[in-house]
Design brief:
Chitinase A, domain 3, 5-stranded antiparallel beta sheet, alpha+beta, single chain, Trigger factor, domain 2, 11 strands, elongated
Amino acid sequence: MPSTVEQLSPSRVKITVEVPFDELKPSMDKTYQSIAQSINIPGFRKGKVPPMVIDQRFGRGTVLQEAINDALPRFYGQAINDNKLAPLAQPDIEVTKLEDNELIEFTAEVDVRPDFELPELDSLAVTVEPVEVDEERVTEQLTALRARFGSRETVERAAAEGDVVTIDLEASIDGETLDDATAEGMEYEIGSGTMLEGLDDAVTGLSATESTTFTSKLIGGAHKDEDADIKVTVTAVAEQNLPELDDEFAQLASEFDTIDELTADIRTRLGNMGRLEQASDARDKVLEELIGKIDFDLPENVLAADVEARKGQITQQLGQAGMTLEQYLAETEESETEEAFWADVEKRAADAMKAQIVLDKLGEERDLQVDQNDLTQHIIQLAQRQGQNPQEIADHMQEHPQHITEYMTEIRRGKALALVVEAATITDTAGAAVDLDRLQPDGTLADPAEETDEAEVETEEPVGAKAE
């Protein structure tokens, strides 16, 4: 089955395929059999209607069209394999010649992976932040744990630092009340600094039913970052009774016997989390470094479709939340225009597509394989992230076989990225090497492999060596 490829652009080709009519015979037989099973013609048993009779009744052209539609995916796939192309989207196929009992010719225009060279992976080098356990986070963890095992008692006195007050808030600008900056029955711990600036000072000293007004910048809504007059009313004051940080508390709140052991465990867990965050940052930076060394044009049609899909998904999610993009941007911490927001969406789509193309090529060049165990582990991890039973995901996958291909592609890309990270040089800002080979899924480090006898021999000075 001869075929030729015309390069329309760096990422789009036109394939012209000539198919000898004999190769259409399996699809012709299948079409005749299908039609014969679906019709009743006097004088013929069902399913035994001869092709000549079917041609007379339905027309030869109808049969040819059905057979060609059935065979084209197979012919197209063979042409893709013969020419070693990597399609990125569905093709636009057109039958350009049909000579009955002689020849079929069709063309297929399709976006394909552009040609490029991968850099040497060991040339990649990135820097990440070192893993450091912030003692403030340790204190926060202990405080949260104390709060879980503490109690509250409503008191008839003025509020003080550490108390939890129930408050009503009403914001106004130039005397006009702002509906989106009004709330009732909110709980707030004095001294936490988690809400409006100036709120701590305003409620300190107030008793239940008392109010005051202060000025503060709004932290969200349509008037974000604008000064507003805030009326706060305290409706209840509760005193927190927190247990002492001692060995008795450690035994109550954990499996440890002493507060020192509990504190050390919190530090360890924070360190594990830090290593996982560091590893994630390292992978992102290594991938960014890799694609930054490669220059090629992305297929415009595929990228445009992906961008539109992303925009549609974001718009749908905002609609379900009852928000416009303008309202969403007003709620976010960083000030950003709608134009800048959509530009960022387009950039992220382009970066993601480029990364996928690069990792797919690396996977092919290194002949990375995905087996059943890889698929099983992927399903288990996916179930853990989504809070589902792995069997539910496996059953869904069997009902939708296309997901198997998607999962296997994702797994293969993960393996390709692991190769890139393994080859790259990763250091922290303090100059220390970051070794991700020993990192476990929970953030712990595996025990280093014991030195082999051969390695020990290599470190010894050879007999008869001369000192210089």
